[in-house]
Design goal:
537 residues; nine-stranded mixed beta sheet; F-box domain-containing protein; 23 strands; globular; alpha/beta
Length: 537
Amino acid sequence: MQNFRNHIENFSTELLLEIFDYLSINDCFNAFYNLNKKINSALYISGYSIDLTVISRQKFYEFYQNIIFPNYSQQIRKIKISNDLTIGLLDKFFNEYYLHDFIQLRSLTLIKPSYIILGSIALLIPHLKQLEHISIDSNSYPDSFFEKITTKSSTIKSCYLPGLQIQDNFTFESKITYLTVTVEDITILWNLLARFSQLKYLNVFLRSTVDANEECLPELNVISCNNLQIFKLHILEQSSIEFNEIEYLFQRILFPDLISFSYDCVTNSLDHFNVTRWNDVLSKYLSTIKKFVLLVQIPYKLPVYINIKEALIDMQKNLHTPIPFSLSIDYEYYMIHTDIYPKKNFNLSLKPPNLNLYSNNYDPINCDIIEKYSKVNSLVLDCNSILPCTILSKNIKYLQIQGYNDNLNLSKSLKYCSNQLLSLKICGLPNDLPHMSNLRQLTIQQIMFDLKMVSKLEFICPRLELLTIEIDCIKQFGNILDQLRYKSNLTELKFIRAFSRDPIQTWSSWLNERKQIIPSDNNIAYEAKNSYLFIWF
C-alpha cells in the first residue's frame, strides 16, 4: 500500500482528474480524501456527478450534508434527486441549499418534485449559467413553466419533460435542440415545431384527435424543420387519432434532413399499418431517413388473428423500403413492429384464452430467435404462462411473476438471469428461489411477512436496498423493523414499504407510539399514507 501511495503522489494533477472521472464521488473520497495536499487539491477542482435517488439517509447526512455540499458544491456538474424513496429529500435540498451556488451544474434531474419546487426551479433557471440539460418526472406543472424553462436560459439545450402537457398554441420561441414532451393534438405539434426551429431531436406524445374529419382538418401552413434529425412520435391509446391526421401532419411539415423516424401507436384501426399509405408517406415526406422504427399495438379482442397476419404479410411483401417486420403478442395487444421488438418491457400478465395458438415466437419466453427480443430487460408474467421448460433470458433485469404455480421450478427458470436481476415482484417467498447476488428491489405479495423470512432474504438477496412487504399485525412491525435494521446481514437495505389491512391499528398511531419509545432518531424517516408506511434509513 505504501508503494502504491508513493506512485499516486507522483501523478500529475491532470492525470488525477482523469482518474476521478472514472469513479463515483463516493469512491473518489473513500479512496483519496486526505491522503495529501496535492490529491485534496485535485479533489477540490474535479467535477462530480451525484445521484441521490437510492442513497441511505445516514450517507446523505454524514457524507453529502457534512462534506460535499458545504465544500464542493462548485464542483458538482450533475445532480439527480428524488422525493420518491428518499422521503422528503428533494424538498429538504431546496430548503437548505441555493441551487445557483452550484456554478458548474450542467445537468439537473428531479423525480416527483412538489408543485412549489417546480415553481422555484422556473425562477432559478436564469441564474444557472452552465445548465444544459433538465429532466423532470412529474404530472403537474405551474403555469408558464414550459415557457420559462425553454426561453429564460441561454445555455439549456435539452429538456426531458414527458409528463408536461402542452394544450394550447403559444407564441414564444426557443433555441433548445432536444425535447421530450406531450402535446394535445397535431395542431399543437405543428405550432411547437414552427416555434422551436432549432430542434434536432423531438420525442413527442400525442394525446387526442383534432375531432375533425378528412374534409375539414384545420388549415395549417407548410413549414420546414430544417434542423430536425430524429423524430419519435407516440400515439396514445386514448387519443382516437386516425391515420389521415398523421398523413396531414406530414403534408404540412417538411423534414429535409431527417435521419431517423419512430412511430409508436396504440390504436383500434389497421389503417396505421396500411402498406399503401405508408409507402406514400415514406416516399413523399420521409425520403431522407436512414432508420425507420414502427410499432403498432392493436387491442387483443378487436380484429381476428387472420387480419393481423394478412396485414403483416402485405407490409413485408409490398413496402417499398426493404424492412423486415415481426408480430408479437402480449395477450393484451397484437404488436406489429420492425424486426427487433423496440421496447424494453414486455407484459405477459394476462393469461391468453388459447396459449397453444400463439406460443410460437410471439413473445420473449417462447421465441427461438434471441435477437428479436434482445432489447427486452423487463418482464411481467403470469405464472401459468411459464412452461416447465421455460428459461428466461439473461437480459432480464426487472421481473414480476403473478400468481402461484406449484409446478414451476424457479431455480431452473431463472438460472440465466438470476445474477442480473435488479428487481423482483413475486407471490410469497418460494423455497426454490435462487441466490440473486445483485437484486436491489424485492416485493413480496399475497403473503404476510414475518421474522422467519429475514434469514431467507439474507441468502437470496444480500445486497437488497428496497423491500416491499405486507404486514398482518401492525403492532408486531417494530420487531420486524429492528430485526431488518440491526440484526440482519442486509447491510445495504435503505428503504422499506409496508402495507397492512390491520383493522385494529393504523400506521399513524403506530408512528406516534414509536416516537414515544424512541423520541429522536435522525437516521430514519417515516411517511404514512393510507394503508402504507414508507421508511428511509
